[in-house]
Amino acid sequence: MAKKQRGQALVESVVGLSLVIIPLLVVFPLLSKVSSAQHRADQAAHYNAWERTVWKEGRPDRMPSRSGLYVAIRSDDQQMQYLPWRFYQQDGRKIASRHQEKWSWDNRVHPLLKYPLKRDGTNTLLLKNLQESAKDEQELARLTGSQQGTGTPGTYGKTVEQAVGMLSFTGFKLPRDQFYRTQIRTDLENLNMSPFDELDLSVHGQSALLASGWNAAGPYHVRNRVRRLVLTNYMDVGVIRTAQNLIGIIPFGKEIKSNSLKLGFVEPDVLPANRLCTYGTKNCGG
């Protein structure tokens, strides 16, 4: 009986190792890799939401048509191309606004995103290629994302937006799609080991940010936008200016002249100096 008991204990140990302990040894390192992928997706989503408050998808409303003005415009695809360089590459590499080198998922990706998926034990990139024809140097070969600007959520937010929208009848407009929602998704490769070969895992990072609707591109932009809220602006026409100058001929009517009584006059110099720089000039985006 003693020999049979010792044999039974050995069998139980083998079964326990094969069915419990060994899978755990496989899963725990994999979970750390998946956690790293999830963390980077979250960071990328936060970054995209924040950057969209700076980089516009189109030219701001009533932007003055002057040469040398700088407008921060970037498409969704252009914005997405920065994500691998900032969140998926190896530690210690410089992050620049313009990259001189080409991206490579195999050579530049962080070691935490590699795992021995094959039976030979070699480390393979955990992030799945989204397209069969996608190349290794394409930044968007292994991640996708969406960026959407919507109105302010909630009843109160919609009420305020409707009130602001009424100002559009005067020609004064503010962006009402400043509630930015972003999402980043990466699919994960399956392990070449049963039962982990059909998991089809994916990680999603989401973020949302409510930004200010006022974006003035220098003093000219401020003047062009604010004048629409000044009622006397609609009296600043040639006929009325001529009448002002005629009245100004009278000795006590000098203050009525158009160069003294400026209808619809807006002076943006009352704003802080750092809000009055002209985009594209020195120390202001140039």
Which key terms come to mind for this protein?
single chain, 286 residues, alpha+beta, 3-stranded antiparallel β-sheet, 7 helices
Number of helices: 7
* Gross morphology: elongated
Helix proportion: 25-40%
Query: What is the oligomer described by this structure?
Result: single chain
- CA radius of gyration is 31 Å
Specify the biggest β-sheet: 3 strands, antiparallel
Describe the strand arrangement of the main beta sheet, using strand numbers.
3-4-5
Query: Kindly, what is the distance between the CA atoms of the first and last residues, rounded to a whole number of angstroms?
Result: 89 Å
Low-confidence stretches: none
What structural class do helix, strand and pairing data support?
alpha+beta
Strand share of the residues?
Answer: 5-15%
Mean pLDDT: 77
Encode the helix/strand succession as letters: HHHHEEEHEEHH
Tally of strands: 5
Structural notes for this entry:
This protein has 286 residues and is α+β, with helices and mostly antiparallel strands. The protein has seven helices and five strands. The protein has helices at residues 2-52, 76-80, 83-88, 105-108, 155-165, 219-226, 238-247, and strands at residues 114-115, 124-125, 144-150, 179-187, 202-210. Strands 3-4-5 form a three-stranded antiparallel beta sheet. Strand 1 (114-115) and strand 2 (124-125) form a beta hairpin. It is elongated. The mean pLDDT is 77.
